[in-house]
Amino acid sequence: MQASAAAPRRLSGRTRDVVELGGAVVGAAVLAFVGLAIIGAVGWPAFNTSNVTRALTTLGQTGLVVVAVIAVLWSRHRPARTLPSLLSSLVSAGLVTVTLGMPLGATKLYLFGLSVDQQFRTEYLTRLTSSPHLADMTYPDLPPYYPATWFWLGGRYANALGLPGWEAYKPWAIISIAVAAALGAALWNRMVGVTAGTAASIAVTLVTVQYAGPEPYSATLIAVGVPMLVVCAYALRGRSRLADGPTPLNRTSWPAVVAGGVFLGVSATVYTLYTAVFAGTAVLMALVYLVQAWWLPRNAAVPDDAVSADRRPRMLAVAVRLVVMGAVAGALALVAWGPYLAKRLTTDAAVSGSAEHYLPEAGALLALPMFQLSLIGLVCLIGFGWILVRLRQRTVAMSLACALVVVVALTLLSLALTATGTTLLSFRLEAVSTAVLAAAGAFGVIALARVAVDRFGDIRLLVGVAAAAAALAVAQHVPAALSAEITTAYTDTDGRGVRADQHAPGAESYYPQIHRLIAEQTGRPATDHVVLTADFGFLSLYPYWGFQGLTSHYANPLAEFDERAATIARWAEATTPAQMKQNLQDSPWRAPDVFLFRYSPDGYTLRLAEDVYPNDPNVKRYTVTFNPAAFDDPAFTVTEVGPFVLVVKKG
Predict the structure, then answer these.
(1) Closest Cα to residue 257, out of 192, 319, 335?
(2) Which of 381, 392, 438, 570 has the most CB atoms in a 10 Å sphere around its CB?
(3) Distances, alpha carbon 585 to alpha carbons 1, 579, 590, 591, in Å
C-alpha cells in the first residue's frame, strides 16, 4: 500500500528530464538576474583600487561550494534526483554570477570594457538592439557574416529592459553563461548522477569562465557543448552500451538524435569554429561506431552470411542517425546563415576577408593544458589519464577522446595553413580542450577516490573535503587570472561618459554630446545615418551605420574593406567642397552623411587600420588627413567638440 501511495508522486522519466533541464534554465536565469541586481544596488569600490569585491567574490564562491556538497549528500541519501539536480545546477549558475558579477560590480562594462574585440561585439549587440532584423554590425544593406544568435537574444534582453546595447552587454553576458552552465550541469546530472555530475559541471564551469569568459558567446557553447558530446555519442550509437556497439535503426533514441542536431544547428548560429569541433567530433564518433560495427560480429563460429546480415543494419543505422542529425543542424543553421549565403551567391562585389589572419604565439603551439604547473593542469592530467584508461569502456571517455582528437587535428591543420597565408585561429581551441580535460579530470578524481577508499578504508570525508577545497582554490583564482580584463572594464570610459574607477574619463566622454548634436542638426534617429569615423567606440554605443569597419578582420567579406579604405584615401585629397560633394555622390556604396574626425593642426584626421598578417600584431595603424577647406560650405555643418570635429552633411 505504501509503494502504491508513493507511486503517483514520482515523475516519469520524460517529465523529470523536462523539470530538471527546464528548471535549471529558468532557475539560473532568475538567480543570475536577481544576483546581478543585488550586486548592482550597492556602491562598491573599483576592483583595480580595492580588494573588497575580491573578498566578497571568495565568500560567495565558498558558500556555493558548500551548497554543492549539500546537493551531493542529498542525492546520496535520498532516492529522488530532481531536487538535488536542480540545486546542483544552480550552484554552477551561482559560480558564474558571483565570479564575474562581483568583481565587475562597480562598472557597467563587461570584461575588456569597450576595448579590443569587445568593441565590435558591443557594436553588434547595439545593432541588434536597435532592430530584431538580422543585419551587419557596421555596414548598411548587408546581411550579417558573424553568427548572430547570441547577439540577437541579447538585443531582445536589452529591449525588454529598456537598456542600450552597451549597458545590456555585461548582464546579458553573465546571465547567458550562467544559464548555459546550469543547463550543462543538468545534462551531466542526468547522464552520470548528481555526484559525478556536480563535480564535472563545476570543473567545466570554472575552466570556461577563466578561459572563455571574455568571449561570452563561446563560453555558453563550451558549457553546454562538452556534455552534449556525450548526448551525441549516445544518439549515434542507439540504445546500447559502448561495448555492445551501435544498434539497428529500430533501437534509435530519436529524441537524442534531434537534440544533437538542434545543438549543432544552434551552435552554427553562435560560433563557427566551435561548431567545427562539435560537428567534427560527431562525425568521428560515427566513424568509430562504423568500425566497431564492422569488427564486433567477427567470430569464427558464426557463418560469414550471418555476420554480414548483422553488420549491415548496424552500420546503416549509424549513417542514418548522422544524416538526420546533420539535416536538423543544417536547417537551423540556415536561419542565420541563409541571408548571407544568398547575398554572397548573387553579389557582384569582390568577396574578401581576413578573419583568419591572426597568429599570436598561442596559435603557433599545440595546447597541452595537462602539463601546466597549476591545479587546473593537475586536474587535466588526471583527466587525460582517465580518458586513456576508460576509452573503450565508457561513452563519456570515448566522446571526450574524440573531441580531443578533433581539436588536435584542427590545430595541426591550422599550423600547416600558416604556410599558405592563413590560419584556423587554433588558439581559440585551448578553452575547449581544457574544458574537456577538466570534465574528464572530475571523473578521474572520483575513480581515484574509489580506489583510495578500497585501499585505505572509509576516507570519504577526507576525499570530499579535499575535492571541495580544490574546487574553491580554482574558483578564487579566476578573478586573478582575469585581472587585466576586469581592470580594463574599470579604466575604459562607458556610454555615460564616466570611468568606473572614478578617474578622469577619456575623450570618449564627448560621445553623448556628439550624439545629441547629430540628432539636433538632422532631426533623424541614429539608424538613418552612415558615419565615417575611426572612433569605433562611438558605433559601439549608438546604432549608427558605419562607412568603414574597425579592421578587415571583423569586416563583412561582402563589404569590400580594402576598396573602401582606398576610397577614403582618395576622398582625403579633396581640397574644395565641390570635389567633396562629387566624391560622396560618386560613392559606389551608401555614402556617409556624418563624419567624426579627430582634430589636428594638419586637418581633420582618421586613424585607420591595415592588415599586415603574418606580422604579430597583425594590424598597422595609419592616418588619413582631410582638408578642412573641403567642408567649408553651407552643405556641411562643422562643430568642434573637445578633440573631435563633427561634420554633418545637410539634406
Answers:
(1) 319
(2) 438
(3) 87, 10, 9, 7
Cα separation, 440 vs 386, in Å, equals: 7
| Rounded Cα gap, residues 186 and 329, in angstroms | 22
C-alpha cell at 413: 591543420
Output the nine-digit C-alpha cell for 609: 587600420
Is residue 40 exposed (0-12), middle (13-18) or buried (19+ Cβ within 10 Å)?
Answer: middle
Distance CA 373, CA 299 (A): 48
> Strand pairing of 594-600 and 603-611?
antiparallel
Which pLDDT belongs to residue 520? 96
pLDDT at 412 over 90: yes
The C-alpha angle 19, 249, 291, rounded to 5 degrees, equals 105
158 closest CA partner among 175, 145, 142, 180: 175
Contact call for residues 100 and 32 (beta carbons, < 8 A): no
Q: What is the pLDDT of residues 234-272, one digit of tens each?
A: 999 999 888 888 999 999 999 999 999 999 999 999 999
Burial of 361 (0-12, 13-18, 19+ CB in 10 A): exposed
Tell me the three cell numbers of residue 140.
Answer: 548598411
- Confidence (pLDDT) at 12: 57
pLDDT of the residue at 298: 54
Task: For residues 43 and 487, give the distance between their C-alpha atoms in angstroms, rounded to a whole number.
Answer: 17
Q: In 10 A of CB 348, how many CB atoms?
A: 5
The confidence score (pLDDT) of residue 611 equals 87
The residues facing 499 across adjacent strands are 493
Dihedral in degrees, nearest 10, Cα atoms 521, 524, 529, 535: 60
Report the alpha-carbon angle 216-219-225, nearest 5.
145
List, in order, residues 6 or more apart from 573 with CB less than 8 Å away: none
Q: What amino acid is encoded at 251 in this protein?
A: R
- Residue 215 identity: E
β pairing state of 594-600 and 530-533: parallel
CA 190 to the chain's CA centroid: 24
The CA-atom distances, in angstroms, between 613 and each of 127, 237, 356, 552, 566 are: 29, 44, 10, 11, 19
In terms of C-beta density within 10 A (0-12 exposed, 13-18 middle, 19 or more buried), how is residue 298 classed?
exposed
Which of 295, 27, 74 lies closest to 178 in space, CA to CA? 27
Contact 154, 128 (CB under 8 A): yes
Which triple of cell numbers denotes residue 138? Answer: 557596421
Alpha carbons 56 and 360: distance in angstroms, whole number = 35
Classify residue 372 as exposed, middle or buried by CB count within 10 Å of its CB (0-12, 13-18, 19+). middle
Q: How far apart, in whole angstroms, are the C-alpha atoms of residue 223 and residue 207?
A: 9
Query: For the residues of 420-458, what is the DSSP string, one character each?
Result: GT----GGGGHHHHHHHHHHHHHHHHHHHHHHHHHHHSS
Give the Cα separation of 276 and 66 in Å (integer): 37
Q: Rounded CA gap, 98 and 479, in Å?
A: 10
Whether the CB-CB separation of 337 and 140 falls below 8 Å is answered with: no
Query: Distance (Å, rounded) from C-alpha 616 to C-alpha 391?
Result: 39
CA distances from 442 to 51, 280, 431, 436 (A): 31, 24, 17, 10
Contacts 24+ apart (CB under 8 A), 498-502: 500/46, 500/106, 500/107, 500/108, 500/109, 501/46, 501/48, 501/49, 502/46
Residue 8, Cα to own-chain centre: how many angstroms? Answer: 42
